[in-house]
Amino acid sequence: MNKVCPTVVIWLALSFIVAHVLHYIHNANCHCNPSHQASEAYFMQSLGVPDTVQIVDVYGIDPDLLAVVPRPVLALIMLFPCSDKHSEYKTEQEKEIVKKGQTVSENLFFLKQYVHNACGTIALIHSLANNQERVTIKDGYLKEFLDQAKDLNPEDRGHLLQKSEGIINTHKDIAVEGQTEAPDPTDPVPYHFIALVEKEGSLYELDGRMSFPVNHGPSSPDTILEDAVKVAKTYMDRDPNNLHFTLVALTMDS
């Protein structure tokens, strides 16, 4: 059975500004308290995300485990360990895409990462920004950011996020809630978040550290979860001795 790493061991992977947003992803070193679920709800509502949108665990990539994930699925967010092997693969992948080219939807929202240790935040933004036709984001920090970023290029969007104090400060407040010591935003993090979304019939891998999105081929709103976990499995196959992979799905009430 293909199981991903239990989320109870993943706290160190969280960027400090998304620590309690994905309250499913924390380890025993986290000084947990009963307010984690309330913190997540507060965070989402503070950014104007309706309460019909939820973040749920994906416990494995076998069909029987995928079957219990609530539908519809809007995006898959993956947390994985950073390694030299991964960096080398991504460098070669970028070179290959530049050489051969790829089709990318003009309506795909992608931003570059310039905020240190903010990969979790960016994965969440990528997931929500590319589902605005299904999720009505209310007035708030996130809607303001997305409205301002709509016509910008990925680099300028990344710089705009650096200046988006409402988003950054909300995350900072939640990140320190219940902790004996605030996380240092400059600490190196040995894990990284990416988002996998479906847009106009294609599955895209969105990683703010890369120069561009990666088109992984055909997909649909009905098959995004199954298609996305195939990409996740390629990450696991490249690092078969490492168990520290975590998957969560962004879902909404049907």
Q: Based on DSSP secondary structure assignment, what is the total number of beta strands? A: 6
**Ends distance:** 29 Å
Low-confidence stretches: 5-37
Q: Tell me, what's the shape?
A: globular
Which range does the strand content fall in?
A: 15-25%
Query: Helicity level, as a percent range?
Result: 25-40%
Keywords for this entry:
six-stranded antiparallel beta sheet; globular; single chain; 8 helices; 35% helix; alpha+beta; 16% strand; 254 residues
What does this structure look like?
The structure is a single chain. This protein is α+β, with helices and mostly antiparallel strands and 254 residues long. Helix content is 35%, strand content 16%. It has helices at 36-46, 63-66, 84-100, 119-129, 141-149, 154-163, 165-176, 224-238; strands spanning 53-58, 73-81, 191-199, 202-206, 214-218, 246-252. A hairpin with a 7-residue loop joins strand 4 and strand 5. The protein is globular, with a radius of gyration of 17 Å. The two termini are 29 Å apart.
Topology:
Blueprint: H1 36-46, E1 53-58, H2 63-66, E2 73-81, H3 84-100, H4 119-129, H5 141-149, H6 154-163, H7 165-176, E3 191-199, E4 202-206, E5 214-218, H8 224-238, E6 246-252
Antiparallel strand pairs: 1-6, 2-3, 2-6, 3-4, 4-5
Quick overview of this protein structure:
With 254 residues, the chain is of the alpha+beta class.
